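Archive entry. Fields below.
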Amino acid sequence: MNVALTPPRQRKPARKPAGEPTSDAPVAPASGRPRRGLGFRLRQNWPLTLFLVPGTLVLLTFHYVPLGGNVIAFKDYLPFLGIGGSEWVGWDNFRILFNGDPAFLNALKNTLVITLVQTIFVFPAPIALALLLNSLVSERLKRVVQTIVYLPHFLSWVIVVAIFQQFLGGSGMLNNWLRSNGNDALSIIGNPDAFISLITSQVMWKDTGWATILFLAVLSTIPNELYEAASMDGASRTRQIWHITLPGMRGIIILLLILKIGDSLTVGFEQILLQQAAVGLHTSEVLDTYVYNNGVIGGNWGVSAAVGLAKGVVSVLLVLLANRIAHIFGEDGVYRREH
Amino acid sequence: MSTDTRTLVARRRPRTSRIINGQPLPHPVARVVKGVLLVLVCALVVVPFLGIFATSVAPAEQLARENGFVLWPESFQLEAYRSILTGGVVSRALVISAGVTVVGTALSLFATTLMAYALARPATVGRAPVLTLLLLSMLFAPGMIPTYLIVKQIGLLDSLWALILPSMLSAFNVIVVRSFFQNIPAELIDSAKIDGASEWQIFRMISLPLSKAVLAVIGLFYAVQYWNAFFNALLYLNDSSLWPLQMVLRTYVVNGTNLSPADLGPAEILPPQPALQMAILVISFLPIVCVYPFLQKHFTKGVLTGAVKG
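PREDICTED_STRUCTURE:
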């Protein structure tokens, strides 16, 4: 429980100031300025510091304590013994990673394939749509289209999956129409071969519109003088896209690619979980569903936590690596380069 | 953002009649192609909603004739809505989802704005370490299994609080609101202090009212998160009498379990299953579709501030 809470052991004026504002008076003369400063600042500003408490409590309880709870990746967790009482087993749980358990390798392979396909098809779609919207002369038309295409982002995956079933399922609209015209029905939902295309098109339907918001915001910061000057020089609209608009989007595209790389081990968890039963684990198991199916459903807590932990660590490393590469190319990346 | 658009508009003096926003007007053929593309994109979004709504109100004979899915109803039948809203699993789930959304959004906004306010004021003790904790939390995710075990250990399994507390605070949202609070002129706050206002009063009467736009967006994001909560419910709620709408939606629409008269309110005739299913679907997206257009104009602010500062 207390893993994340250990540091403030010696003295913790930072978080519980409200009770006794005078209690730190004896501490003050002990040594030097910073300490007296802290006590003084605390007395002066305890209401402000109190404002931090609810948020910090939630952050510690539901983020940092579970983060420390990752120790069970090194334990043989048994529910009745609890996290503290379970036995340490060292790196045993990670053996599934090192020894190449087929189910794990399959999940890893599916994850990477889906990430690759989605980077190729999903990533450029909002850029294209943003260019299209940006080229509209009428602001009102642009606003209307934006309102429509943002909407699917706010729907839950359950709703999106249900909508796709209604349209593409065995008795969905598409197949009804095909049958009534004397054609054979297409097997899309529940067909393992079509699974990756299906989930990719679902992601595109849900988030392409919403993802344009960042690109459009960046596009609106490109100075109009650039376009004016180019027009004076006789550049066509297409040339202006190539020489002004796209270079203007370079920074944001690189930033989003970095974030995408950091996320490459995470693919639509809820989305896939909802549709897993229909196509089977072989095509649809990804790392997150592996953790869920193995841990929460299967009770292999330690092993699942180990997979989750390894995934988290690799993801952080990927972000840092991608960021480093961005810096080499002279871009800002996620955080600024320190001078 | 808004200043940008204003200067944009101001610059739109017609140098040559054919130049708009510094660019020549597009070629007529290009305009037609673009028009077709836009209509197509919009249709892809709008048609599913229309079809689902049409199916939910279509009469039984038409549904039987057209194999359970229609794009245009021959007449309006509200039987399906009546039977799911007058009692039974869907009504209960609707009440639960609405309650979780209202309570959750209120708590989230409370914790988020308070924290953002304290983090925006230089005098706060512990500001730097808490900010670091917040930023690091965006990089390191705790993972599903440990989170589940902690929630279980706290005793939140089979409690609706499990849908609220673990997802109550979004670090990203705190950063967004904080950067808004930071833009409030310090003189304003200082003069309020000199007039004897407490921090709580400054927060309530200066900072919050000046940030209404971003609060609306953040509030919408939180509300959508609670309304759409599916996996947390699957993970933490074994008791199906506590299920929120998304779980009911999964059972009866995605998995296709038939609704029996026992799952519904009192009705003389059982409406056809497709109409019932689509009515549940409509109920689950209707609140979002109704609320979101009013907040859309603020989206860029909320999303972009975070992206730039974070």
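CURATOR_NOTE: Chain A touches chain B through 104 residues (CB under 8 Å).
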